[in-house]
Design goal:
Blueprint (H helix, E strand, L loop, with lengths): L2 E6 L6 H13 L2 E7 L10 H11 L6 E6 L3 H7 L4 E6 L2 H17 L4 E6 L9 H9 L10 H10 L4
The chain binds adenosine-5'-diphosphate.
Length: about 160
């Protein structure tokens, strides 16, 4: 059962996320990137747009899939018989939140565990929110995100 899910908002997916995914694929035979629908967040991209961008961004990895889920990650995992989640850690600031979430998920389903991969140094300061802000103000984001995401961001913010 060496399959895993990689849950997150991915609003939008960045090269930091893709690096974690690529490295997770060295450990697991199949990884599903799970777009989590969070009712308390108002995403920039619709679910459909996110799914399209992610599908295109992961198309060169046959063992990577994308799906979405509206509800608890552990419920999705249990339904699909997946007992491992992958998450990325950038800095100590990520740690507390990730730690709480991993422990909560394990108390919801004791067989469920989370594997953390440290960011690659060059992606340490990269987040979806920074990408959204830079792009909204007309800055270049091509070094941070795949081509398909850069194109959509330009369309979204009306930059030619
Ligand atoms: P969430 O809203 O669930 O935190 P994100 O899409 O922001 O969703 O992030 C999903 C996961 O990817 C988190 O574990 C986050 O720490 C990790 N992540 C995000 N950006 C990077 C990055 N640049 N390098 C490594 N991990 C990252």
């Amino acid at each position: 059962m060496d399959v895993a899910i990689y849950p997150g908002s991915f609003d939008p997916i960045t090269n930091g996320h893709l690096n974690i995914l690529e490295r997770a694929l060295d450990i697991f035979s199949e990884v599903t990137l799970l777009v989590a629908i969070n009712p308390s967040k108002k995403p920039l991209f619709t679910l459909e747009e996110s799914m399209e961008m992610i599908s295109e961004a992961i198309s060169s990895w046959p063992q990577a899939r994308v799906d979405y889920h509206d509800g608890l990650t552990v419920d999705y995992a249990r339904e699909h018989g997946i007992r491992t989640a992958v998450r990325g850690l950038r800095a100590v600031t990520d740690f507390e939140h990730e730690f709480a979430m991993a422990l909560t998920n394990r108390s919801l389903w004791p067989e469920f565990d989370t594997v953390f991969l440290m960011t690659k140094a060059e992606y340490m300061y990269l987040s979806s929110s920074v990408v959204r802000q830079v792009s909204q103000m007309g800055g270049q984001v091509d070094q941070f995100v795949p081509k398909c995401v850069e194109r959509r961001l330009r369309q979204k913010f009306g930059h030619a």
